[in-house]
Amino acid sequence: MAEVKSDIEIARGARKKPIQEIGAKIGIPNEHLLPYGHDKAKVSAEFIKSVKGNKNGKLILVTAINPTPAGEGKTTTTVGLGDGLNRIGKKAIICIREASLGPNFGMKGGAAGGGLAQVVPMDDMNLHFTGDFHAITTAHNLLSALIDNHIYWGNELGIDTRRVAWRRVMDMNDRALREIICSLGGVANGYPREAGFDITVASEVMAILCLATDLKDLEKRLGDIIVAYRRDKSPVYARDLKADGAMAVLLKDAIQPNLVQTLENNPAFVHGGPFANIAHGCNSVVATTTALKLADYVVTEAGFGADLGAEKFFDIKCRKAGLQPAAAVIVATVRAMKMNGGVKKEDLGKENIEAVRKGCLNLGRHIENVKQFGVPAVVAINHFTTDTEAEIQAMKDFVKAQGAEAILCKHWAQGSAGIEDLARKVVEIAESGASQFSPLYPDDMPLFDKVNTIVKRIYRGDEAIADKSIRDQLHAWEQAGYGNLPVCMAKTQYSFSTDPNLRGAPTGHTVPIREVRLSAGAGFVVIICGEIMTMPGLPKSPSSEKIFLNEQGQIEGLF
């Protein structure tokens, strides 16, 4: 049996074309590509503005079951499907998020796909790329510095230092920074207060960059950020500190989408990267809407399982950007079904049809949920060599009973040739006009009712529970004019419940709300549930231990 190459070895051997050739395939002239080396470029704001009158292509969402240690391959399938659509003669663009350094050096790994379904340059994408995350981190922390500087120089705005809502960020997993005391060391360093760090991908600046329609909209949203409250609980905005202009300057290049290519030299926009368990988990509106003007099909993904990523894609991104998805693909694997069915990771190589059937309850729940939004769904079975015919058939039979179709996909090993069947099915669904998309709840529903709607209809829980102080805070925001915003649920990705160990399709659980945050600039209310952390920690043996430069100066261990 031939040796299976690692993702990074495959990426290193890619036959990349100059980025100008990739741009030309979708009608972007050279003068509107701002190159970062030979294999990546930003697309100019002028070009984006020039295509706004073009007809939209079809938008395809790739989502998945709840992630397991067995692996699902959602990004791999997104990339494979984009290649597959191009293979069957459709003009398709892939839109995915950028990778966060924290998970890359922690546990989750990168976000460039895998096997023969990858976006390249994989190592650049999983590291500093075009500097977007650095720009977002710097813009966020500029605002943090301006807040403490304003307080130091007399606090003309009357900020209550006990009610500073704006934290600091860095793009690394560092649990030691979750809760800190800043400004220690005497008079020269300001007034000591409690503070803390979130990871950059949880920053409201990240969410704003990904939801803004252009630079002008970006600057307005930055000004709308609520940074603190006065003693009378009236809000202090970023524009009150005159921060919005300088923050926009730092982000003027970052808001432009990044163009790269797949291993098969098809175009991909890789832009933005909000986490899906603690933020809204979708690539940028600018990238998606621009791609829709340039292609017949745009394949995009939403983070983690459909209970988080797809729900936020539909209820936040599509609602705010006026997007109409034509179809959804739900990625699942035989291995993950067995794990949901109670099989331990070390036993996944053994055939266990009963465990597959039992684990399919998780998949069935996601199929039902996607259909609640009026979007037709097809299941992609991401193939592993240990899968048996009987196990695959058990999955297909289950999905058929749910009124959908499951298609075996071998894109990891075969590239676009292994996913043609799924590509043709997606085209069939999208062209049928069957999608009747609508968000789960109306804008004018009270905030806590929006939360309960998601808890009951998506998580299948009994109710959300929250202290009176949290309910009062939500009510105060409604009174202040923020009641029409969607809610962004920050919850564990591993379960429909807030217990990460509760796999399958649990019902009857409650969803405890620990904290709520108003992201007035991004345009949503963050609902932090259970034990979810907005600054992750590193595992006992982080991935960074295995990442190094080899004797040829090439990166090893990055995935």
Give a quick set of tags describing it:
single chain, 559 residues, alpha/beta, Rossmann fold, Formyltetrahydrofolate synthetase, domain 3, 3 domains, twelve-stranded mixed beta sheet
Describe the structure.
- The protein is of the alpha/beta class and 559 residues long.
- It is built from 19 helices and 25 strands.
- The protein has three domains: 7-128 and 256-432, Rossmann fold, CATH 3.40.50.300; 132-250, 2-Layer Sandwich (Domain 2, N(10)-formyltetrahydrofolate synthetase), CATH 3.30.1510.10; 447-529, Roll (Formyltetrahydrofolate synthetase, domain 3).
- The strands form six sheets. Strands 1, 2, 3, 4, 5, 6, 14, 15, 16, 17, 18 and 19 form a twelve-stranded mixed β-sheet that branches.
- The longest helix is centred in the first third of the chain and has 21 residues, at 132-152.
